[in-house]
Amino acid sequence: QVQLVESGGGLVQPGGSLRLSCAASSNAFSVYAMIWYRQAPGKERERVTTMWPNGVTTYSDSVKGRFTVSRDNAKNTVYLQMNNLNTEDTGVYYCNIPAENSWGQGTQVTVSS
To answer: Does position 1 have pLDDT exceeding 90, yes or no?
Structure first.
């Protein structure tokens, strides 16, 4: 199974930015669709963005225009650039490879003044 490791979370003030990373253990990384999810306290897990192998991306309405997903296939890594963060973006962020049912351990993002 492909191992995923997220990093880059932390505490940021409203209006700030963070960049999350998700590193995969597979050298076949380039063929996978990658998904970022998040889960806020007391809420269900929400799909934030999907990036297909061909570069096509989709975003939830709640993050559209503020978040940008990208990938570096040479580094087996997908990134999530998060700008203009607000308190509703607080939660644990997970990356996922649906084809392998692989999940990372999650990285905490807290937006607070």
So the answer is: no
